[in-house]
Each structure stands twice: as structure tokens, then as C-alpha cells.
Design brief:
The complex is a heterodimer of chains A (about 290) and B (about 350). By secondary structure, chain A is mainly alpha-helical. Chain A is about 75% helix and about 0% strand. Chain B is globular. Chain B has 2 domains: about 5-90 and about 170-339, Rossmann fold, CATH 3.40.50; about 105-170, no CATH class. Chain B has helices at about 55-60, 85, 110-120, 125-140, 155-170, 185-205, 215-220, 240-245, 250-255, 260-265, 300-305, 330-339, and strands at about 5-15, 25-35, 40-45, 70-75, 75, 95, 175-180, 205-210, 225-230, 230-235, 310, 315-320. In chain B, the strands form 2 sheets. An 8-stranded mixed beta sheet of chain B has the order 6-7-8-3-9-10-12-11, with helices on both faces. A 4-stranded antiparallel beta sheet of chain B has the order 2-1-4-5, with helices on one face. Chain B is an alpha/beta fold. Classes of the chains: A mainly alpha (about 290), B alpha/beta (about 350).
């Protein structure tokens, strides 16, 4: 191994070290595989679904799972559950990832400013986050839906708004601690402008808790999006999504329990994959975790 | 008319407000300090913890804005410039920090750390930058391959060498060394100090060397200023301070240095000061040292504030009522022995 490593440039060695650190953790690899699977399904969606997810057939209502032609059975309108699950993946992934990314971008930026400059800006920002945090997110979503109309993009917006304060808080708390570090002072003495100090030094060093927060927020907002669809505030029927499927299934729990089990299982697996990946990333991103 | 000194600090004051929830008041961390450093000079600033040494250093590099007084760098007053206005001046001064563990960004490679001042002041392509970084690492006695390493892979001494390389990357005319070796093992201290002295000789920068360890100051500095509760109590050349200290506080500090000769060490008169350094929130009246001074002449020392004045018609200055203009000084050791 040493002979091989000696031939590589140091940068490549560093990359190799990252990869080895990642692959040595089974949970991280499983998580990555799971996330990759769901992302792939979300992208390919309609191409790989065995049947038309919206084709109704009143002759085949509530076909039980594992029967020919309908691997996961059919629903109350005779639609193929597997096809609806596959097509619905996109809505769930979109909601989870987009809402979290929007919230993270906005929240981290505001948190950096708030923690770095402190003063009046910080006070205003903290009170604003208090206000948003004091709203239960479902109420926020209902309110937003009643103003803008129910749709997936409005559900994502509501999710993002409800997630922003947490990102602001976490970033700010990290920044407050990091800005007193001597390496930040050293950067200042070196003539680094505030922009470089904030994004080049402070942000890089608070990445770990932020990655963790993202990995918590994505599954959270997948569930959140499902909740909103369940309540009829997200994706509108007949479009398939995991949340609407759950919502439709609740009337038939005694006749067709699998109808509720499969979308629930999909939500659980997607959530678990993201959480495991986040755990693994946290370990890899910390350069001190090499020993 | 000679060129202005590299650093000229006049009447520097730095006060910190204490929040009302913690009793209110003001911490007089630095309370009227004058320091002049000429080209190529190494000035040692010594004092106990809490005497304000580091605060002086941080004001000079303007990590802190002074409450009063002026700081002139090559004759230009920088005491109240904004961070943006300061940026061009930052070529002239850099700093070596006390803690080699927190002064290097754990996410940056050694090469990036050393190159940061160069990048901030621009003008170098990536190839030249790499060359410069390697020559800097070489100068501080590190292998050039170190540039791809990360701080956590290095020892304390190596990290401090990296800090030194970073601080010298722009060829500053003034280096602030804030207790650069006090966090290191004694064996490593010597090698880092030797490196610092060699570099100073080669590059000729001036240096404000902040320390509480008198032995290192005696090794490194040409001149020494002794700080007590935010004020300079005595200043002179290394020889003057170490062979004939005048101020009772300086005398007691020097008596605390161990002599590498056990029988002699046992026979020496030691001046042991009682109590801690008084609170800078409410400093003692008159001479701030009178509460711990073995030779204090009460009530005069408690009432009159002594001023820093030259003695023996030299550049030497002392702030003590009991020191005569001709250099006659009280002997704190004898007074302490009598008690």
C-alpha cells in the first residue's frame, strides 16, 4: 500500500483517505446506496413504473400483493400500488431535498451574518426566528395553502420557512464560538476581509453540525411533505405521492392493510437512508477522525 | 531627523466595560502605556498574567480598538482606522499567537495557512505562491512536503513553526509574538526561540515579544519593559534590567528566576510577593504596586501616582517614588528578608 501511496500526489492521497474513511463505515455505505436508489427512482419515475399509475380498473380493486401483474397489489380504484409508489417518489424527494436546501442556504447565510456581526442585526434576527419557531409548522402550511392555494411547491415553501430558524440558530451558535478562535484573529491580522473569514474559515469549521442538521432535516421534510399531502395541502389527487396514498388508504385499513403499509414503508426507508448517510458524512468530513 | 520608529505607542489605554449583571464597572486592562520600538529592535514586554501584556499586543495589531492613546506604525496613526482601512497596513505587522492548537485553522492545509497573508495581499500566481510557501516552510525548518498536511497531524512545536512561517510570509517590519513558546514543552521552547532569533537576525524585523517567563526574555530581547496592572513600571536595556533592576516589582520578578546552581539557588534571597495581582476593575490608589510592595513608603506611595521618568541620564525609565534620579534604588530583597 505504501508503494502505491507514494506514487500518488498528496491531493490524491487526501481523496483516497476520504474514500477509505467512508467505505469503512457500513452504515454510511448502506445509507448512500439507499439514497442513490431513491434518487434514481425519483429521476426515472415514469420510465420504470410497470403500469400507468393513474389508470383505474374497477375489475381489479384491492388485489392483494404479490399477485401476477400487481406486485404490491392495487388500491380502491384498481390502480397499481407499485407504479404509484415509484411515480410518487419524485414528489417526496423533491419536497425533502428542496425544502431543506432552500432552508439551509438562507438559514446558514443569515446565521453567519448574525453571529459574525452580532449587535442589532443579531437581536432582530433572533426575535424573528422566535416568531417563526412559535408557529406550529402545520398551521404555517395551512395558512400558506389558504393564501397561495394547495400545491407541492407551496408545501415546499412552507416546509422551508419552518426549517430556516433552526439553521439560523445552529449556524449562529457555531459562529459565536468560532469567531473567538485564534485562527480567525490570525486571518484578520493577515488582512482577510469579513467575507473570507466568514465563508473561508468560519463556515468550513461549522460544516459538521450543519451536515448533521441537513441529514436530520431532509427526512424530516420528507415526512413533513407526506403529512401535508396527507392533509390535502401538498400534491393534489390524482397525482401520486406517498402522503396522498397514505391519506387514501386510511378508509380501507381493515380491508386492505398493505395499501397503507407500502407508502409508510417507503417513507421510513427513505428517511432511514438519509439519516445513515448523514451520520457517515459527519465522520468523513472531520479531518480529525482519521486515527 | 531620523526616520520614525517602527512602532510608537503613546498613552495606550484599553478599558473593558463589565456588564451590569456582573457588578458593573470598568476593567482597566491597559492604562497608559508608552512603547517605542525601533528598526531591528526586540522589545520584551513582561508581567504577570492579568497585567495587560496581551491586550497591548492585540491593540497594536488592532484586534482591539484602543480606548485612548495612539498607536503609530512607521509614523502613521492606526489606532482608530477601520478594518478596511487597516488592510494595507497589515503587510507591515503580523502576529504569532500563544496557542499553537487554536491559531491554525483545522480545515486548512499547512500550505494554505502559510499562504493566507500572501493571498490576501495578492499579486502572486499559484505557482509562485507554491514556491514561496515551500521556501517559507524551509526557512522555519519544516519539510516542504508539510504543505499538504493538516494541523492535527503536527506536533505543538511544528505548529508554532507554521505560525511563524505565516507571520513572516509578507516580510513584515514588525512581529508581535504573544507568548509564542509558553504553550510548548521546555525542550521544544528552546528550538523555537532559537529559530525566532535566527530569523530575526536574518530578516531584521522588529519584534514585540510578550512573555511572562523572564528567562526567555533575557535570551531574546534587546530591551525590556515591565508591566504591572496595565502600566509600565520599568523599562531599560536587557543588561540594565537584569543586572540592576531598580523597581521593587522588577526586583521581585527577577528573584523568582531559578539559578541553574542548586547551592547558590538555596542561598539566594527571594522576594516572595504576597497575594494576587489586584483587580484591574478597582486598581489601588497611588502606586498600584504599593499593596504588595515590600518597601512601600506609606502614605506617599498610596497617595501619589508615580510617573515613568528617566533615570541615570539614559533611556532607562522607572516609575517608583523611591528610586532617585541618580539611580539609587531600594533593595526589596533586604526588606523582604527583614520581615
Amino acid at each position: 500500500m505504501t508503494a502505491l501511496a507514494a506514487e500518488l500526489t498528496p491531493r490524491a492521497q487526501q481523496r483516497l483517505r476520504y474514500r477509505r474513511r467512508f467505505t469503512r463505515r457500513p452504515t454510511a455505505v448502506i445509507g448512500l446506496a439507499g439514497v442513490a436508489f431513491f434518487v434514481l427512482v425519483a429521476i426515472l419515475g415514469p420510465l420504470i413504473s410497470p403500469a400507468d399509475p393513474n389508470a383505474t380498473n374497477y375489475d381489479t380493486i384491492f388485489v392483494s400483493p404479490f399477485s401476477a401483474g400487481h406486485l404490491l397489489g392495487t388500491d380502491d380504484l384498481g390502480r397499481d400500488v407499485l407504479s404509484r409508489l415509484i411515480v410518487g417518489t419524485r414528489a417526496s424527494m423533491e419536497a425533502g431535498v428542496l425544502a431543506t436546501l432552500i432552508a439551509a442556504l438562507v438559514g446558514v447565510f443569515l446565521g453567519l451574518l448574525s453571529g459574525y456581526y452580532r449587535g442589532r442585526l443579531d437581536t432582530v434576527m433572533m426575535r424573528a426566528t422566535d416568531v417563526v419557531l412559535s408557529f406550529p409548522f402545520a398551521i404555517l402550511a395551512v395558512g400558506l395553502a389558504s393564501i397561495l392555494g394547495p400545491s407541492l411547491s407551496n408545501a415546499i415553501l412552507a416546509l422551508a420557512i419552518s426549517l430556516v430558524p433552526t439553521f439560523i440558530r445552529i449556524t449562529r451558535a457555531e459562529v459565536l464560538g468560532l469567531r473567538e478562535q485564534e485562527y480567525v484573529q490570525a486571518a484578520l491580522v493577515s488582512g482577510a476581509p469579513a467575507r473570507v473569514i466568514m465563508f473561508g474559515h468560519i463556515l468550513r469549521n461549522c460544516l459538521t453540525p450543519l451536515v448533521v442538521q441537513v441529514s436530520v432535516a431532509i427526512p424530516g421534510s420528507i415526512i413533513g411533505a407526506a403529512t401535508l399531502s396527507f392533509l390535502g395541502l401538498g400534491e393534489q389527487p390524482p397525482t401520486a405521492s406517498w402522503g396522498t396514498m397514505l391519506s387514501e388508504s386510511q378508509n380501507y385499513l381493515s380491508q386492505a392493510a398493505w395499501f397503507a403499509v407500502f407508502p409508510g414503508l417507503a417513507i421510513a426507508l427513505a428517511t432511514l437512508s438519509f439519516t445513515m448517510l448523514g451520520d457517515g458524512l459527519r465522520d468523513v468530513l472531520d479531518p480529525r477522525g482519521d486515527r | 531627523m531620523t526616520s520614525p520608529p517602527v512602532l510608537e505607542v503613546r498613552g495606550l489605554k484599553k478599558h473593558f466595560p463589565v456588564p451590569r449583571s456582573r457588578g458593573g464597572g470598568t476593567v482597566h486592562a491597559v492604562d497608559g502605556v508608552d512603547v517605542t520600538i525601533r528598526a531591528g529592535e526586540v522589545l520584551g514586554l513582561v508581567g504577570e498574567s492579568g497585567s495587560g501584556k496581551s491586550t497591548v499586543g492585540k491593540c497594536v495589531v488592532r484586534l482591539l480598538e484602543p480606548t485612548g492613546g495612539t498607536i503609530a506604525l512607521h509614523g502613521r496613526d492606526i489606532s482608530h482606522l477601520s478594518q478596511r482601512e487597516l488592510r494595507p497596513m497589515r503587510r507591515q505587522v503580523h502576529m504569532v499567537f500563544q496557542d499553537p492548537y487554536s491559531s491554525l485553522d483545522p480545515r486548512q492545509s499547512i500550505g494554505d495557512i502559510v499562504a493566507e497573508p500572501l493571498r490576501m495581499h495578492g499579486g502572486l500566481g499559484s505557482r509562485e505562491l507554491g514556491k514561496k510557501v515551500e521556501s517559507l516552510l524551509d526557512k522555519v525548518g519544516l519539510a516542504t512536503g508539510m504543505r499538504y498536511r493538516y494541523p492535527h497531524e503536527l506536533s505543538g512545536g511544528q505548529r508554532q513553526r507554521v505560525g511563524l512561517a505565516r507571520s513572516l510570509s509578507l516580510d513584515p517590519s514588525l512581529l508581535i509574538a504573544d507568548e509564542p513558546v509558553s504553550a510548548l514543552d521546555v525542550s521544544v521552547q528552546a528550538s523555537v526561540l532559537n529559530l525566532l532569533m535566527d530569523l530575526q537576525e536574518d530578516l531584521g524585523f522588529s519584534c514585540l515579544f510578550i512573555a511572562h517567563d523572564l528567562a526567555t526574555v533575557e535570551l531574546v530581547c534587546n530591551r525590556v519593559a515591565v508591566l504591572y496592572l496595565g502600566r509600565i513600571v520599568e523599562e531599560g536595556t536587557r543588561e540594565e534590567i537584569f543586572t540592576s533592576p531598580k523597581h521593587p516589582y522588577t526586583q521581585s520578578l527577577l528573584s523568582a528566576i531559578a539559578v541553574p546552581d542548586p547551592p547558590l539557588q538555596r542561598r539566594r534571597e527571594r522576594i516572595i510577593l504576597t497575594g494576587d495581582i489586584p483587580s484591574p476593575i478597582d486598581p489601588p490608589s497611588g502606586c498600584t504596586f504599593h499593596t504588595r510592595c515590600p518597601v512601600a513608603d506609606l502614605p506617599r506611595c498610596a497617595d501619589e501616582v508615580p510617573i515613568l521618568r528617566p533615570i541615570e541620564a539614559s533611556a532607562r525609565q522607572v516609575s517608583c517614588h523611591l528610586v532617585g534620579a541618580d539611580g539609587t534604588a531600594p533593595d526589596a530583597a533586604k526588606a523582604a528578608a527583614r520581615i
